[in-house]
Every structure is written in C-alpha cells, then in structure tokens.
Specification:
Helix content: over 70%
Radius of gyration: 25 Å
Structural class: mainly alpha
Largest sheet: none
Number of strands: 0
Strand content: under 5%
Shape: globular
C-alpha cells in the first residue's frame, strides 16, 4: 500500500510540474526544445528519480520515471510524445560506443566469473584464501589492500574486485553492503588521485583546455602569458592539486579506519550485525544487482576445487588490461614523449578492458576444458549463465545512462554551474565549487561529465576573481589549486552518493548487492567524510589557515573520533541486548 501511495504522489507531481511548465510558458506550438534548458526545471528529473528510488527501492521504475519526465519536458509536455522520446533516449544511450564497451566488458566478465564458478575455481580461491583471511577483519583488510593492485582504472577495479572477493566475504559473513562500500570507496578515489590512471589524460586535458581557451579570450597580455604557461604546465597543476583532494584521500583512509577499528554506524552497522549473526549477507527481500544463485553457476560435488582456475583468468584480465593501455596509449606518441603518465593518460581504457575481459573469458574456458573439468558445452553454458546474472545491472546501467542523457539535454549541469556565477569572496570559492560539483554529480550520475561541465566554468571564474596561475606570476595560486581539486573531489563525492551513478551500479553489480541497500549504507559514511573534508580541508586551506597536509591529518583525527565515539563493533553484543541479558552475538563471536 505504501508503494501505491508513493506512485500516486509521483503522478500528482508530474501533473503539477506539467501545469507549472505551461503556466510559466515553457511549452510552445512546436514543442519545447530548450524551454527548461538550464532552468530550475532541469533538476527535476534526477531529483524525482533519486527521491523515488530512496523512498520505494524500486530502482528500475524510479530511473525510468526520471527519464520519462525529462523526455516529457523535451517533447513539449505531451505524454505520448514523451513516452516515445524516452525510448529514443534509451536507444541513444545504448548506441554510445563507450557505453556499449562497458556493457560488453561487464557481460564478458560475468561470463568469465560464471565459468570460474561452475568449474570450481571460485570455491578453490575461497579455500585458498581461507588460510590468509581467517576472520572478518582480515577479509576486509585484504579487500581494501586489493584496490592497489588494480589502481589504474575505476571500472576494472570495481568489477574485478567485487566478483573476485565476494565468495570470500560471503564465507566470512561480511555483508554485501560492506563489500560494495569497500569496493566503491576505494575505486574512484584512487583513480582520481593516483598519477598513473586512465583518469589522468582526461583531467589534464580539461585543465589545459580551460587555460588555453581563457588565454585566447583575455585582452591582458600579462594574464594571457600566465594562462599560456599554465596550459603548458597543466600536468604540474594537477600534481600540485593532489594534496587538496581532501574527500578522495580521506575517503580512502576512512575505509581503512572502519576496518582497523572494527566499528560501524548507521545502516551499515545494522547490515553487518545481520550478516555476522547469521541473518544473511543480503537483506531479506533485497534484489541484488547480479544474481549469483543461478543453478548454472554452481559446481557439481565431484568437480575439483582448483584455485588457479579462477586466479589465472583474473590475473590475465589485469595483465591484458595493462598491455592494452600501453598499446593504445603509445600510439601517436613520439619516442621522447613515451613516459608512463603520457601513455596511460592517452590510452583507450574501453578498448583495453574489452580485450582483457575477452581474453580472460577465453582463458577461463580453456583451463576447465583442457583439464576436462567441464566439456565445451558445459563451459559455454556456464558462460551464458554468468552473463545472465548481469542482466539486471545492465538494465539499470542503460536507464542510468538514459537519465544522464536527459540531464545533458535539458541542461542540469549548466544550471548548477550557473550558481557559481554569483559574486562571492574568493576564499569561499573552493568550498562552493566542491558543493556544486557534488550536486552536479549526484544529479547527473557521472563524475567525468561533472568535470567536463565545471572545469570550463570554474577555472575562468577563479582567475577572474583573482586566483593566480602560479607559473608566471599571480597571487592566490592555492585558490586555483583548491578550485581544480574541488571539481574532482566533489565529482567523486556526488558520484558515491548517487543511485544513478554508473560506478555505484557497477559496485552493486560486482558485489551482488541490492543497489539501494548499497546507497543507503554508503551514504552516511560519504557524507561524514565530505563534511569533514569541507570544514577542515577545503575552507581552511583556501583561507591559508593551514597547509593541506595538516588539514588531511586533522581530518583523520576527527574521523577517528567520530568512529571512536559513535561507531560500534558489529560483532559485539549490542548494549540494549547486553542490558537485557541476551548473549546471542557473544556466542557467535566465540564460535568463529
């Protein structure tokens, strides 16, 4: 009944929005093409999708609702035309080459995992890791450290680790929500702050493009020279901005602190207590983004559990991905330009990941067939079963991309970026940029899209307000660095919080966790880190009250205090139960 009520309210909201749009004259005889573009109406589709998803947990319906409302705006508020337009939007999302590459990569990786599982390799890895990760603490610690083995790309990091670690964390009774959090909060933060990743080329290009464009437009020769020097040294600006990446760096550290201190709070604490007490690694009634319970993925009792039948394909994926990044990155570079940073920055990550997943799947099939663990037919059936387990996640991805296309079409990012145009004190700029970037990424579901929207706005604004470029004169260079880093940090933070983000979906998919359960449990942690990053990092560093390194250290101390005084050990007996004489959790602790 509650969901029916939400649906009814949702329909009323659509009617009200349509009426307001007509009232404000956004619809015309030929239909609306850009009426709501860049206005407050542009934030309605993502807000409805996100709010509806949080309220009902019906992810598919919520995402399509956002797409449909956006299509309604685009089509001139005609419900029939809007419905047709929504389908066109989803088709366009599928036709995007990069999106299709991610889908094929995900399906192939799912097929590889299916073969590994059906051939007993996954069980063998679980048994082998049992000697290293004998308890929940070691299992979570190993999951955190594994991020640094696949640091070069957030997609590969998320998909490979989630699928590889899930059997081990399930055995140790670590909730799927916790696994998804560890995977998600160590992927993008690492990719955005490390020097050798697939993000580096995009980030440097954005900085360089904004500097060059502004240099061409300014009439001041001295300022133009500074901006040209900044464009030529875009990589150095990025390097200098790394200490100002307060949210990504603190987010990485906070995951480790949660694990080492063995403390959780909020919905995550509830999920961990449920898993530890034997209530299941998944919430009862949840709908995992990937279904790992398919019978076609389960090994027969007589199949040998050989760990290398899973380890070799995974290592193959990593090595081929690195090789693919090198091959695609070195193309077009002169011998003297072939530094590691230039190669990785200029690489095509989507092509590399496709080669890697295809090769990994072929190796997985070859291993089990060569050893006569499975026949060719059985191996192919297992591969198809693994692909089927990814179907729900692929649908969610397409809908999320469709909603992202809608937000671009109606100018959601443009509207949010326009909020920066108002006059404000220079020292508040990095903090405000962080908030706007977070709101943009949360609403659009894309960190790269957020950076592409905001860099051309933020850098000229910072320079116009008095931030110096730093290489050829100019004061307040720290403001420019803080503004640049705030775009990247805010984009990652908003991406972490958004249920329509592709990396959030992929984390849920690889961890086989319910998407909204992942969002609800990760959101409090991300918000805590973001608030600390803003008030002890972004603002003090901009006012030059504290060096960014000291800001990070102070942030760590505050986060430690928050966990120390508000966090609880999920394996300990809750205080309410201890007071009432219940000792079920204590008995389970001793049994482990």
């Amino acid at each position: 009944m509650k969901k029916i009520g939400y649906t009814f309210l949702f329909l009323l909201l659509i009617a009200a929005l349509t009426g307001m749009a007509d009232l404000f004259g956004f619809s015309g005889e030929e239909g609306v093409t850009n009426g709501p573009y860049g206005t407050w109406l542009s934030i309605v589709p993502p807000l409805v999708a996100i709010g509806f998803a949080l309220a009902t947990r019906e992810v598919l319906l919520s995402l399509y609702a956002g797409v449909w409302i956006g299509a309604l705006f685009i089509s001139g508020y005609n419900p029939i035309s809007g419905s047709v337009e929504s389908l066109d939007i989803l088709i366009l999302a599928l036709l995007d080459a990069d999106h299709m590459a991610i889908i094929v990569f995900s399906l192939l990786l799912g097929g590889m995992v299916g073969v590994m599982s059906r051939g007993g390799g996954t069980k063998g890895v679980v048994d082998a890791l049992g000697a290293l990760a004998r308890d929940r603490f070691k299992g979570q610690l190993f999951s955190w450290f594994s991020a640094f083995f696949i640091f070069f790309d957030d997609y590969a990091n998320t998909l490979i680790r989630g699928n590889a670690l899930r059997p081990m964390t399930d055995r140790l009774r670590i909730s799927r929500e916790k696994l998804a959090y560890i995977v998600d909060s160590t992927a993008a933060p690492l990719a955005v702050s490390a020097v050798i990743t697939t993000w580096i080329g995009f980030e440097i290009t954005q900085i360089q493009g904004a500097m060059s464009s502004l240099a061409a437009q300014t009439a001041d020769p001295a300022l133009a020279a500074q901006l040209e020097a900044g464009a030529e040294n875009a990589f150095m600006i990025f390097l200098h901005s790394i200490p100002y990446l307060f949210y990504p760096l603190l987010a990485l550290a906070f995951v480790l602190m949660v694990i080492v201190m063995r403390r959780d709070f909020g919905p995550m604490l509830k999920a961990e207590r449920r898993a530890f007490s034997g209530g299941g690694v998944l919430r009862p009634g949840s709908m995992p983004a990937a279904d790992t319970s398919l019978e076609s993925l389960q090994p027969d009792d007589d199949i040998p559990r050989r760990w290398y039948n899973a380890a070799i394909p995974v290592v193959t994926v990593i090595l081929v991905a690195l090789f693919g990044l090198y091959i695609t990155g070195v193309e077009g570079l002169a011998p003297g330009e072939r530094s590691i940073t230039n190669i990785i920055g200029g690489a095509d990550p989507f092509a590399a990941l496709l080669w890697a997943s295809f090769t990994g799947t072929a190796v997985a099939i070859g291993l089990v067939v060569f050893q006569r663990v499975l026949s060719v037919t059985e191996a192919l059936q297992a591969m198809v079963g693994g692909m089927q387990s990814m179907l729900m996640a692929v649908i969610i991805l397409v809908l999320a991309w469709g909603l992202g296309g809608v937000t671009q079409e109606i100018g959601t990012g443009t509207f949010l970026a326009s909020l920066l145009q108002d006059t404000l004190p220079l020292m508040l700029l990095p903090g405000l940029v962080f908030v706007i970037a977070a709101a943009t990424a949360f609403s659009t579901g894309t960190s790269w899209g957020t950076m592409a929207i905001l860099f051309p706005v933020v850098i000229p604004l910072a320079v116009a307000m008095g931030a110096g470029v730093g290489f050829a004169g100019g004061e307040h260079y720290a403001i420019l660095l803080g503004s640049v880093s705030s775009v990247m940090a805010g984009a990652v933070f908003g991406d972490h919080c958004s249920p329509i983000s592709d990396t959030t979906v992929l984390s849920s998919m690889s961890s086989a966790c319910d998407l909204m359960d992942h969002v609800n449990t990760q959101l409090p942690y991300a918000l805590v880190v973001a608030v600390v990053a803003l008030f002890v990092g972004e603002l003090p560093a901009a006012f030059d009250w504290i060096h960014p390194v000291w800001g990070i250290l102070l942030g760590l101390v505050i986060l430690y205090g928050i966990l120390r005084y508000w966090g609880e050990d999920p394996e300990a007996v809750p205080k309410s139960n201890a007071d009432s004489g219940q000792s079920g959790s204590a008995e389970q602790t001793s049994s482990l």
